[in-house]
Amino acid sequence: MKCPFCGATDNKVVDSRESETGEAIRRRRQCLSCGKRFTTYERIEAPPLFVVKKDGRREEFSHQKLLGGLLVASKKRELSPSQLEAIVDDIENVLRGRNASEVPSLEVGEMVMERLRELDEIAYVRFASVYRSFKDVKDMRATIEDVLAHPPGTRPEPPRRPRKRRDAEGRELSLDLGK
Ligand SMILES: [Zn+2]
User: Fold this and answer.
1) Range from 102-106, 125-129, 157-161 carrying the lowest mean pLDDT
2) Total-model pTM
3) Nearest to 94, CA basis, from 83, 82, 81, 103
4) From the CA of 35, how far away is ligand 1's center (Å)?
5) Residue 18: pLDDT band with limits 50, 70, 90
6) Ligand 1 centroid to 64 CA: how many Å?
7) Residue 176 pLDDT > 60, yes or no?
8) Where are the beta strands (DSSP E) in 70-179?
9) Residue 177's pLDDT is what?
């Protein structure tokens, strides 16, 4: 397994565990040459996962590429590489757990932003500027103002679709109509 940072082939496994969905073994490896860490997945003939870009082009999902984008967005911020790695791991686990063969790039971007926003506002806005391709300064300002209005940790949970409806008196109505 070639180190993605320096190309050396000698590395050691520093951590090994099953992914959330139990379909893959995730291994953290450390390069014996440069000391950097990277992740490999062992899985049973998993179908490749493609990211579909806005213009319709498909590109295989790349853990390293997504991590690279996060590293750029968080340059000179106080985010550790392991925090960024955890974001990418989490997203990859969610996506692969779905067993879908493709995912729109915009959705991947939104998943990153959702997680980045909780950790670092500046990195979030930088990442958003790339993923949302702000049309102009106004567009960017709207995103920044939204961050200022809803600092990390204060945003409400996204509304869940209620399973039951209530009638005029507030009684729960069962939606189980089929039987
Ligand atoms: Zn290396």
Assistant:
1) 157-161
2) 0.55
3) 103
4) 6
5) confident
6) 14
7) no
8) 102-104, 165-166, 172-173
9) 46
CA of 19 to the centre of ligand 1 (A): 24
Q: What pLDDT, in 10s, does the model give residues 67-119? A: 888 888 888 888 888 888 889 989 988 998 888 889 998 899 889 988 988 88
Q: How far apart are CA 138 and CA 82, in angstroms?
A: 33
How many of the other CB atoms lie within 10 Å of CB of 9?
Answer: 10
**87 CA from centroid of ligand 1 (Å):** 22
The CA 37 to ligand 1 mean position distance, Å, reads 8
CA 1 to ligand 1 center in whole angstroms = 10
Look at residue 44 in the predicted model and tell me its pLDDT: 65
pLDDT of amino acid 9: 92
What is the three-class DSSP state of 121? helix
- Residue 100: partners with Cβ closer than 8 Å, 6 or more residues away: 49
Ligand 1: distance of its center to the CA of 10 in Å? 8
Angle subtended at Cα 128 by Cα 124 and Cα 132, rounded to the nearest 5 degrees: 165
The maximal CA–CA distance of the chain, rounded, in angstroms, is: 70
Tokens for 119, please give them: 């950790």
CA of 76 to the centre of ligand 1 (A): 22
Q: Please choose, from the candidates 66, 106, 105, 71, the residue with its C-alpha nearest in 3D space to the C-alpha of residue 89.
A: 66
Which amino acid, one-letter code, is at 135? K
